Amino acid sequence: MIMKKDVVFKHVTMRYGHFKALEDLSLQLAQGKIYGLIGRNGAGKTTLLSLLASFLEPTEGTIEVNGKTVFENADLMQQVTFVYEKEYKEDTEKVKAHLEAVEAYKPNYDPDYALELIKAFNLPLTKPVNELSKGMMSALNVTIGLVSRSPITIFDEAYSGMDAPTREIFYQKIVEDHALHPRTIILSTHLVSEMDYLFDEVVIVHKGKLILKEPIDVLLEMGAAVTGAVEEVDHFVQNMKKINSQRLGGTKSVMVMETLSEQQRIQARQTGLEIGPVSLQDLFIHLTKEGDQDEQK
Amino acid sequence: MNKNKRNDVKVAYDMTIVQLGWAAWLIAITLMIFIGIRYFSADKNLGIEGFINFIENPYKIFMLVVGILSVPSFLSYYVKLGVTRKHYFIGTALSSAALSVIFMVIALIIGGIEQLIAPSDVQTFLGVKSSWLFIFIVFSLNIFIYYIAGWMIGAGYYRLGGWGLLFTINGALALIFLMDLLWSRELNTPLHSLLSNYTPENLSLVISFGASFALIAFSLWIIRALTKRVRIKM
User: What are the record keywords, sorted (chain B) (predicted)?
Assistant: First the structure.
């Protein structure tokens, strides 16, 4: 069912000249959830997100929020905040003034929360924006994304400049603030293993097409990691689709793409095998690799 | 902050303030040069036409340059903040008109002070001793045209790249030439001389104003068409 504030992509195709960045992509994002958008380089993630931010218009299809087309709709465009790795080489404005300008145009901007984030990220308010280090720039960008509290907030790889501890602060702030002010958040990332716990649902795009969109628990149940003695493991997984395997001495761990039945789980336990979840990272690698092979055939 | 105000009004206000900030330097420096020339130069005829005439060209060049920058810097900036292209367009048109008027108010104030210190005949292309209100209106209009010309060039390049420049630079030149024919006839290019042969020497004000507004409307229409659905560069 389509809820009022859902984001709906309907048969969206985006062409740049002869290059198809997105092809007949249909996707619905429910209000208030955190989505992980995953895809390899050039998969069409940024195109997808910049379409939602009205940076461009799709060649075919529509993108709707509230049942209305987003592009050039003043009310809807105000509800979307798109954060990406921006360069501010010519921007000599100080951080404080930069944030004030954002405040003037973002209806839900919370100045108190801004102060909290400035403190958490150690942002220098009096420094010109173009003199910030790469990490500080990223911190400023995500600060803008968070404090705008837009009903639709997009972070497109906005964290690559930050070091691990800073990223950790960012993840924590997302979880905290999303609990207090639920909104649709889309996190596009390469850092799958680091961020998977943030996602309610996962969207995987590959070569301009939607591969899947599933709640993360459903997705992780699509596969399993089987660990135990080499022979037992080999026997157990012999008819299954294996996506990764590791061996250490007499122990082997194999990841399979298979939703295990209760019976299979009992059988595994009886033979001394351990069944664990697969990681999103492994699933992602597997799912997008398969696409490659299909292409080659 | 003015969160309930319409975005086009906000854009108009913000852009006017920012661009006035830039222009403050221009006006201050031009004024200093004018004073320097007027009172310290050996040639007493330099700058004799008065400050209003002296600052006309700096104003025009400023407006041309700021106009060129408008789409690449302000349009991207505002769309990123969630402002529509339409509101940017309306806001920019309003702010450039406001800027032209404010510029002339400043020039007239300085010109007025100049008259108090050293009364002289204010001499512009509108003739000696034309009314200040008339100077104010016509100069504002002419300064505004330079912003439009620059704006068109910037929009053409942003939308169409190098080919856009080919069309819009010519469009901007045509606009400036035509405005000159309608008003001052200060320019002197071969094309211009050729065109001048076909236009009467003294146009009636009705024709001058009417044609000017038509030109402005047409140019604005082109700029809007170029930016209406333009892809924002990241």
Answer: Membrane, Transmembrane, Transmembrane helix
pLDDT tens figures, A126-159? 999 999 999 999 999 999 999 999 999 999 998 8
Query: How far apart (Å, rounded) are the C-alpha atoms in residues A276 and A220?
Result: 10
Q: What's the pLDDT score for residue A293?
A: 47
Query: Is B185 a residue whose pLDDT tops 90?
Result: no
Query: Taking the C-alpha atoms of A179, A180, A181 and A184 in order, what is their torsion angle to the nearest 10 degrees?
Result: 0
pLDDT single digits (tens) B39-67: 887 777 777 778 888 999 999 999 999 99
- Assess whether A14 and A112 both reside in one domain: yes
Inter-residue contact B152 to B70 (CB < 8 Å):
no
Interface confidence (ipTM) of the complex? 0.88
B82 contact A CB<8A: yes
Q: Which amino acid is at B50?
A: G
**Is B10's CB within 8 Å of A104's CB?**
yes
Question: pLDDT digits over A235-293, tens only?
Answer: 999 999 888 888 999 999 999 988 889 999 999 999 999 998 888 998 898 888 854 54
Domain boundary among A171, A198, A215: A215
Q: Are residues A61 and A187 in the same domain?
A: yes
**Which structural domain, as residue segments, surrounds residue A266?**
223-277
Across the interface, whether the CB atoms of B229 and A72 are under 8 A apart is answered: yes
Strand duo B127-128 + B123-124: pairing: antiparallel
Give the residue carrying structure tokens 């450039």.
B96
In a domain, A296, yes or no: no
Same-domain pairing of A46 and A188: yes
Predicted pLDDT at B2? 46
Q: How far is CA A221 from CA A204, A218, A258, A276, in A?
A: 16, 5, 8, 10
Phi, psi for A64 (deg, rounded to 5): -125, 145
Give the residue on B whose Cα is nearest the Cα of A154. Answer: B80
Of the candidates B3, B73, B231, which has its C-beta nearest A55's C-beta?
B231
CB-closest option in A56, A104, A106 to B232: A56
On whether both A170 and A250 belong to a single domain, the answer is no
The answer to whether residue A159 is domain-embedded is: yes
Same domain (yes/no): A191, A137: yes
Are A160 and A244 contained in the same domain? no
Say yes or no: A102 contacts chain B, CB-CB below 8 A.
Answer: yes
Instruction: State whether residue A153 sits within 8 Å of chain B by CB.
Output: no
Collect all residues of chain A within an 8 Å Cβ-Cβ radius of residue B232: 50, 54-56
Claim to verify: residue A196 and residue A61 sit in the same structural domain:
yes
pLDDT exceeds 50 at position A294: no
* Average pLDDT score over residue span A158-176: 93
Q: What is the pLDDT of residue A297?
A: 33
* A150 chain-B contacts, CB cut-off 8 A: 82
Evaluate whether residue A144 is within a structural domain.
yes
Instruction: With a cut of 80, say whether residue B27 has pLDDT above it.
Output: yes
Looking at chain A, which residue has its C-alpha nearest residue B72? A90
The answer to whether A83 faces chain B, any CB pair under 8 Å, is no
Residue A146 in domain: yes
Which of A46, A77, A98, A99 would you mutate first to test chain B, the one with the most B CBs within 10 A?
A77
